[in-house]
Every structure is written in structure tokens, then in C-alpha cells.
Amino acid sequence: METDELKMICKEWYYNDNVAKRNFVAWEILKDVRRHSCDFKGKEKAMTRFYHIGNFGYLLGQLKARFVDTDNPAWDFFKSTALIRVTNNNDERANVKEDFDNLIYGFNLNFDLENSKKKRSEDDVIDVSDVHKECKKLKSFFDKNKIPYILKFTGRGGFRLIILWDDLKDYFKVEDFGEVSGQFGDFIVKQSKIDPNFVDEGVLHASGMALIRVLYSIHPKSGLVCYPLDNDEFENFSTEKMKASYILDNLTVVKGSKPLDKKREGDLSIIYNEFSKANKKQLSKVDQKREKEKLESIGRKQEALEKLKALPEKERKEILDQLK
């Protein structure tokens, strides 16, 4: 897509003259990024990472500065797959003292479906008819098994089904990320009988630092919106309806309306119980590993306590006073 055309699309989308529509887009973006680290990436591939953008006014200012009031827009807008604890709005990664892993408190499970061969195409917009068929199979499996999820168009060549941490947290621990959760994702892919060649394993097995495109952001190659889909929008999908101008023209902004998350509610226990039965041995190994780490931690604490008891009373009292 030509740079001038993309600039016009971004200005209309991220900072529309209609304040109600502008605020709607910014609010939907805020809902998607407020519990993640965020990255803006320009043509130079350089990234600016923010550990948390949780303030509406701050986000609006960032959108204006990075996509509108600049000759070098940060076309790409990404977020981490991991969820992080809140830090200051403008703390960039280099200025944050805490280790990133210590900020993570959860993760979402992402099923990215795309045609990897077409993805490498230079075409601005990719025909997604084949991916749509496979996604339809996976979506049907989710619906049949009452798996809670959000479905979105990724902005150019595929679709993403997302199981949120709010639904995963009763079944997985943060330390399971990439170990059991990846197996859970593989299990769902296998049981759904979709073509695994359409599934991006890099995203499904992603670490906490992995990045995915932010909902309601513009894809710089296609100029289309990364957009959440309800059942009707998916069944009657058209890339024409993913244009920023089409969405804005058909947008009904109602004051006080509920956020348009378009999430399908469900009960993850059904598919998780099936997964547990099929992976009993592996889950047992994870439990054994966790128990071993717990015992080692207790052993280290007992050893430290014995050393403390062996110290002279005065020295022991000084150490205990420092720990208070």
C-alpha cells in the first residue's frame, strides 16, 4: 500500500474528526492493551516498548503522535501475549527496573490460522477463503465443546481464536506457560481435525515476550483493521467490510453502551477434562516437577533457619531486626 494512502487511513481511523468515533476506537484499543506490554514499530524495525498503557488520555496522545503528527509513522502496533502487572504509563522497557518475567501474571492462548505460503506474498490484501474454511472447522469445534473464545480477523491473511487468561487461570498456572498450555493447544488442534499446516505454531507455543497485533489497529500492508468478529460477521466475512472507512461508516456509537468484546462465553472444563485424560502421564510429570521445586525451596529455608540458630544471640538479633 502506498505511504500517502496509508497515512490517510491511519489518520481517519486513529484520530477521526468525529470525536465520538475517535474515542470509540481508542477505547476498544485500550481494552485490548491495558494488561499487556505494547510495541510500536516503524519502517526501521526499531521498537518502543511500554510496559503498560492504562490511561485513556495517554493512549490517545500516543496514537496521535505515532500515527498522525509525524512524517515517520510507527505503522505496526503490537502487544505481548503475556499479561503483565501495572506499571507507569510512560515507562519504556529500558527504564523499568523489574525483570519482565516477574511482571507476568497470566497469558492468553492464541490460535493463529493463516496460509503460510500466501503470507509471504507481496500482495497488499490476501485471499483468505481457504483459511476461512479451516477456521470455520476450528470455530465449530470450539462452539460444540463450549470453549469460551474471541475470534478476530488479523488484518491481512488470517484469523485468530483467543482463549483468555480469565478462562484459563482455573486450570493452568503461570509457570505452565509453554509447557502444558502448548500441549493443550496442540490437543485442541488435533481434536478439531483441521489442517495443522494452517496453524502458526510459533504463536500457539509463544513465550511471554512474543508479540501479536493489537485489536482495532491497522495492518500496514493491507490497510485493513485487525477486527473482532461476531458469528454473523465471520459467516459473511468480506475484506471489504474490514476497511476502516466501512467500519466507521457503519459504526453506531451509543453513549453508555457496553464494550463490544464479542466474546463467546463457555465452560473450559469440558475440553480440559478430555485433555487431562489424554495427557495424564505428562500432567503427572509437571506435578512431580512442581512438587520437587516446592520441596527444594522448603529445604533451603530450613537450612537457612538452622544456620541462623547457630549464630551468637547478638548477631542473630541484628539479622532479625534487619529483616523486619
Explain the overall architecture.
It is a single chain. With 324 residues, this protein is an alpha+beta fold. The chain has two domains: 3-278, DNA primase, PRIM domain (Alpha-Beta Complex), CATH 3.90.920; 287-323. Helices cover 45% and strands 13% of the residues. The protein has a four-stranded antiparallel sheet, with no helix packed on it. A four-stranded antiparallel sheet has the order 6-8-7-10. The protein has a two-stranded antiparallel sheet with strand order 4-5. β7 (150-153) and β8 form a beta hairpin. α1 (3-14) runs antiparallel to α3 and α2 packs across α3.
List keywords for this structure.
14 helices, 2 domains, 324 residues, single chain, 4-stranded antiparallel β-sheet
Task: Kindly report the name of the CATH homologous superfamily of the largest domain.
Answer: DNA primase, PRIM domain
CATH class of the largest domain, named: Alpha Beta
- Our Rg estimate from Cα atoms comes to 23 Å
Low-pLDDT residue spans = 89-97
The amount of beta strand, in percent, is 5-15%
Architecture of the largest domain, CATH level 2? Answer: Alpha-Beta Complex
- How many structural domains in the coordinates? 2
- Using the coordinates shown, work out and report the CATH topology of the largest domain: DNA primase, PRIM domain
Question: How would you state the average pLDDT, rounded?
Answer: 82
The largest sheet, given as strand count, sense and whether it forms a barrel, is: 4 strands, antiparallel
Q: Looking at the structure, what is the overall shape?
A: globular
With helices defined by DSSP (H or I, 4 residues minimum), what is the helix count? 14
Assign a percent range to the helix content.
Answer: 40-55%
CA(first)-CA(last) distance: 61 Å
- Tally of DSSP β-strands: 10
